[in-house]
Amino acid sequence: MTDTLPPCPECSSAYTYQVDALLICPECAHERAAGEAAAGAKEVRDSVGNLLADGDTVTVIKDLKLKGTSSVIKVGTKVRGIRLVEGDHDIDCKVPGVGPIGLKSQFVKKVAG
Predict the structure, then answer these.
(1) 3: left (phi over 0), alpha (psi -120 to 50) or beta
(2) What is the pLDDT of residues 18-61, one digit of tens each?
(3) What are phi and psi of 3, to 5 degrees?
(4) What is the DSSP letter of 14?
(5) Where would I find the Protein YjdM N-terminal domain in this sequence (predicted)?
(6) DSSP calls for 67-110
(7) Torsion over CA of 74, 60, 106 and 64, rounded to 10 degrees?
């Protein structure tokens, strides 16, 4: 099971847990509202500037060659249920026919709806 709760903004602990409407850190005892954005949280935007969120559906806007293989993710490939993460590749997802992979937000476009 993958934990989708954000890390603690005070101590960066990955062990936060939710009780009712609060997120609680067991390491530093910091409490915050579940809907409250982390201080300094980075907004992730797609290639045309749409704000992305966990669970969105996106399409790939250019052919992406996978390193170490001869596989290519074709333009127009629809990816459902993305998860935003920190780092160079800011989207974790499962691409149909490829499997779990990290994508850069600059190569995707959010699907309306």
Answers:
(1) beta
(2) 888 888 888 898 888 776 554 445 788 999 999 999 999 999 99
(3) -80, 125
(4) S
(5) 4-31
(6) TTSS-EEPTT-EE-S-EE-SSSS-EEEEETTTEEEEE-GGGEEE
(7) -10
